[in-house]
Design brief:
alpha+beta; binds FE2/S2 (inorganic) cluster
Length: about 100
């Protein structure tokens, strides 16, 4: 078995999956997708390690904002974003950029 696998990821976005479950979707064109899924669709990239941006869902990040989803760019872990359901994906992507 190989010790390392190459990846095309240049950025990693971390999204709290528990927040996503708590708000019950609210993203994407039909406002029913989770933030992570809506971001993946909006970025329209290959799946997995072939994508240039990795979207990773985490467990609870111990912030638990009401009615929002915690997300941050792993390259800027000092700034977390509280994303409100219904926010346009281009605005989310710009904030996480
Ligand atoms: S549920 Fe998302 S930070 Fe706790």
């Amino acid at each position: 078995m190989r010790a390392t696998i190459p990846s095309k990821w240049t950025r990693t976005i971390v999204v709290c999956s528990k927040c996503s479950k708590r708000v019950g979707g609210g993203f994407g064109p039909k406002k029913r997708a989770s933030l992570a899924k809506a971001l993946r669709e909006w970025l329209d990239q290959p799946r997995g390690r072939r994508a240039s941006v990795g979207i990773v869902e985490s467990g609870c990040l111990k912030l638990c904002p009401k009615g929002r989803v915690v997300a941050f760019d792993a390259a800027q872990p000092n700034e977390w974003h509280l994303v409100k359901p219904g926010t346009a994906m281009k605005d989310v992507a710009r904030a996480l950029e």
